[in-house]
Amino acid sequence: MAARVKIELSGGLEIIFGNAKEYTAQVPSGASGKVTVLDVMLYARDHLLTERPELFMKGNSVRPGILVLVNDVDWELTGELQTEVADGDSVVFISTLHGG
Amino acid sequence: MAARVKIELSGGLEIIFGNAKEYTAQVPSGASGKVTVLDVMLYARDHLLTERPELFMKGNSVRPGILVLVNDVDWELTGELQTEVADGDSVVFISTLHGG
Amino acid sequence: MLSEVVRLRAEIERYSRQIVLPAFGVEAQAKLCGAAVLVVGAGGLGSPAALYLAAAGVGRLGIVDCDAVERSNLHRQVIHSEAAVGGHKALSAAAACRAVNSSIQVEAHCCRLAPGNALELVRGYDAVVDASDNAFTRYLLSDACAVARRPLMSGAALGTDGHLTVYCLGDDGPCHRCLFPEAPRPEACGRCSDAGVLGPVPGIIGTLQAMEAVKVVTGVGRPLSRRLLMLDALQGRMHTVKLRAKMVGCVACSAAATITSASLASYDYAAFTGAQPNDA
Amino acid sequence: MLSEVVRLRAEIERYSRQIVLPAFGVEAQAKLCGAAVLVVGAGGLGSPAALYLAAAGVGRLGIVDCDAVERSNLHRQVIHSEAAVGGHKALSAAAACRAVNSSIQVEAHCCRLAPGNALELVRGYDAVVDASDNAFTRYLLSDACAVARRPLMSGAALGTDGHLTVYCLGDDGPCHRCLFPEAPRPEACGRCSDAGVLGPVPGIIGTLQAMEAVKVVTGVGRPLSRRLLMLDALQGRMHTVKLRAKMVGCVACSAAATITSASLASYDYAAFTGAQPNDA
Ligand SMILES: [Zn+2]
Ligand SMILES: [Zn+2]
C-alpha cells in the first residue's frame, strides 16, 4: 500500500530540502501495512532531504522546534507519528521561528 | 434535487443578512433540475436576506460591486450564474471595499 | 547602473539584512533602490505602505494626497503625529519617510488624483499603490494604470475587513474594471469616514501592499495577480482566492479599450460612479 | 469607570472611526483605553505593534528593550528614525508612540527581559506582545505569562516567513512549552541579524499582533488561541491552522507546573535553550 501525499516544508526547513517548499510523493506503507506520518517523515528524510538530517530528525521523531500538521491540524490532535494518511492528504513540517 | 451549500457573506454584505457571515443551507434545484449559483442567489435573497434587497441584487444577478466565489474561485471562471453546485460546496458573496 | 552600485555600497549596512537573505540578495536590493513607486493616499493604507517602502529602500517614492491631517485620522494613520494635525498629509508622510531613510528620493504631491493629472503622475513611476478611500479614485487610478501599463497594488479596508490584489500586471492580470465593469451605487460603498474602521486593519493591508510592491519591482516572489487576499480580522481569518484573467472587451485594459491615453482625461468618473472623490 | 468615560469623551474625535464601528463601539474603546499592554522588543515586530496599539488607544503601553538602534535595523524597524541611531530603542519607540498619541501612558523599560524581572514586568500589564528575536526570551516570556496568567500575542518573522499565535489565553490556550516542550538547538534557530529578513514581513506580523492584543483586551472577535497563522510573503500565501490545547503535564502552564512564581527567577534559560538572549 501507498499514499499520494503532499509534503510541505516551511519556516526555513525548506533549506535542507533542496530549497523546495512543496513535494508530492507516493509514500509506501510501513510495517503496519498502513501509511502513517512516521512513514511520511522517513520518506522525507530518505528521499527529499538533501543535507544536515540532524536539523530534521532527532531519534525517531522530528527534532525539537518542528511542528507537524496533518491536513492543517496539529499532529498532537491527530495521533502524532501514528496518524494515518491517505491519498490527497497533506503533511506540513514547520520549523518554529524566533526572529523579530 | 437539492444541495447542502455553505453560503458566506463578506465585505459588509453580512449587514443585510442579519449580521451573520455564514449560513449552511439546503438549496433546492431550479427549473433545470440541477442546483446552480442562480438558485443559491435566489435562496439567499428569499430566505437569508433581512433588508434592502437592492444592495444584493440588480435585475437577475448580483448588484455591481459584488464578487461571487464558488469554492474560492471567481465565478467568472466557473460559469457565473449557471455554475452547478453540489453538497459541500461553498458560495461566497463579497462586497468590494473602497475604504482606506 | 554604476552609480546605483556606488549608492548601494554606501547603504550596504542599512540593507544588510535584506542583502543577506538568499531569496532577495544584492540583486533584488539594487532593483528596489532603482525603482520608483507612487502611493496614492496617505491615510490608513498609505501610512504603512509608504513607511515600509521607504524603509526597505525603494529609490524614489511619490505620495499623493490633497487632504489635511485630522484628529480622527490618528487612530490608524500612524505616519502622522499629533503635531501634523492641520498640515498636508502628503507633506507629513513625506517628512516621516525621509526621517526613516534620507538616502531615497521622496516626492510629495499635494493634489487630488484627477482625470487631468492621473496619467502623468502614474507614468512618472514604475509601480503604483492604491491607498485611496473612494470608488471615484479607485476606477480612475486603475484606468490610468491600465493605460500606462503600470502594476497597481490595490488594497482596501473597512470595519474589520480588508482586501488586497494586484491589478494590471503582465499579460493576463486584470484591472479593476475587469472585475467590476459597472460601478456600485454610492450607497453600497462604505468609506472609513462614515462606516468606521479598526486601526490595525488598514495597517495590515497597507503593509501587505508594500510587500507586493517590493515583489513586483524586484521580480522576487509571486505577486497577488489574479488572486485576492481577504482578511477578516475579527475571526483571525485570512485567505486567498482565485480571480479571473483580463476580460476580453474590457473598456480599460483590453485590445478593444475605449479608455485611452487620449480619452482618459475627459472621462466622467463622477457620472460613472455617481460620486465625487471627496464624497463622505 | 466615570473617569474613563470623561477621558473617553475628550478623545471622542480621535477614536470616532472605531466608536462608530458596530462591531467595536464605545464599550470596546473604553475597555481598550482602560487596558495596559506590554510589548517586549522594539524591533521589527515591536515597531508596528507598539505604534498601532498607541494609535488605537490602549490606555497604558509598556515597551521593553535594552538595545540601541542600529543602522541595520532601519529597513524594517519603522518606529525608529535615522536620528535615533545610537539611542535606546525603548526610548525611541516610546517617543514615537507619544507623538502619535499623547493621551495614553507610555512606559519605556530600558532593560533586558530576564528571569529576575520578567514576572514583575508582565504582572504590571493586562496582556503581553512577544516581539523578541531569540529562543531564550521567547521561553522566558511564555513562562512568565503562564505563571502570571497573562495572554501573550506571539509573533515571529524570518526571511520571508512569519508566524502568529496567542498563548496562555483562557482555560485551554496552550503556552509556548505546550507546543515546544524541548528547545531547538541554537543552530536550528535563525535570527534576523544573521539569517536576514525582508522589511515588510515583521511589519505584517507585528501589526497583526497589535490587532490580536486589541481583540484580547476588549473581548471583541475571536483571538488566535489554539490557532497558528502562517505567512509566506513570497507566495502571497497566508493561512491559519489548528493547534493543540494546553498539554497535561506542561511544566509551565498545567496543574503540575514546576515553573512557578517562586522558581521562575532561578530557572536556567541559557542551559535550557543553549543560548543567551543576546546571541547572534
Ligand atoms: Zn480590464
Ligand atoms: Zn504549557
Automatic annotation (TrEMBL), chains A, B:
GO CC, any one term: cytosol
Compartments (UniProt record): Cytoplasm
Protein keywords: Cytoplasm, Isopeptide bond, tRNA processing, Ubl conjugation pathway
Domain of life: Eukaryota
Cross-link (Glycyl lysine isopeptide (Gly-Lys) (interchain with K-? in acceptor proteins)): 100
Keyword Transport: no
Family the UniProt entry places it in: Belongs to the URM1 family.
Protein purpose: Acts as a sulfur carrier required for 2-thiolation of mcm(5)S(2)U at tRNA wobble positions of cytosolic tRNA(Lys), tRNA(Glu) and tRNA(Gln). Serves as sulfur donor in tRNA 2-thiolation reaction by being thiocarboxylated (-COSH) at its C-terminus by MOCS3. The sulfur is then transferred to tRNA to form 2-thiolation of mcm(5)S(2)U. Also acts as a ubiquitin-like protein (UBL) that is covalently conjugated via an isopeptide bond to lysine residues of target proteins.
Protein name as catalogued: Ubiquitin-related modifier 1 homolog
Species, as recorded: Elliptochloris bilobata
